[in-house]
């Protein structure tokens, strides 16, 4: 009896800590994110503190509604010029916090209407356990997340009058940046993926019809996914550019976190700026 009770105790503890039951695939992804950030905290990084290149105006907006869920986000626009292109900005696993506001303002300062979406419906996290719970819930409700992002696209197109629309995200946001591109493959004009989980399903990748740039470090568990993604996309004849940074960890360019790596982060930012200029201007 004592031998049987130990596994039962372990299983019960797993139910309490991890939150079973839910799909295995989403659990695997979220456990990976938990591992990536288990010693992390959402402190402002040098990326978030980067000075915007120009003046912007920012405000909180309602950008749509899915069922009974009203979608609220953070909108930034340049003050000196009329932005003809726009960006959907997708937050890290911490949620839509002030550091993502800062990154949104930096993107707006480059000449875009930048809308930071909120995939957590008004919630954010300062502790790893809470971020894990929010991320897991999002993975378990993928259709709801996609409806949120479609509402953001529609808002930028119809309300903001954007002629071209791109998408950018870090970490969890990088994963959802690709999901957005796959959902709106004939509509998104440029996609930026910072170390987000990718798919290797060629049938899905074959539908992508926009330039894509991606960034990952060699000390990131996802770097092999990026190598495979790069090979698959090139085999399919797609416009893809993957940049791998030797020694860089997961979240090296995040706006919030403790593993910010200035050299890799600044180089990837410069490449992002040039990429957006090339395909959204």
Concise structural overview:
The protein has helices spanning 2-18, 24-37, 46-49, 98-108, 128-140, 142-159, 172-183, 202-205, 223-235, 262-280, and strands at residues 56-66, 69-78, 85-90, 113-116, 164-170, 190-194, 212-217, 240-245. By secondary structure, it is of the alpha/beta class. The model is unreliable at 1-27 (pLDDT under 50).
What features would you describe in this structure?
It is a single chain. With 281 residues, this protein is an alpha/beta fold. The chain is built from ten helices and eight strands. The chain has a single domain (23-280), classed as Alpha/Beta hydrolase fold, catalytic domain (Rossmann fold), CATH 3.40.50.1820. α9 links the parallel β7 and β8. α2 runs antiparallel to α5. It is globular, with a radius of gyration of 19 Å.
CATH class equals Alpha Beta
How much helical structure, as a percent, in the residues? 40-55%
Tell me the strand order in the biggest sheet: 1-2-4-3-5-6-7-8
Taking the alpha carbons of the first and last residues, their distance comes to 69 Å
Structural class: alpha/beta
CATH architectural grouping? 3-Layer(aba) Sandwich
**CATH superfamily label:** Alpha/Beta hydrolase fold, catalytic domain
Helical stretch count? Answer: 10
Order of helix and strand elements from N to C terminus: HHHEEEHEHHEHEHEHEH
Question: Major sheet: size, sense and barrel closure?
Answer: 8 strands, mixed
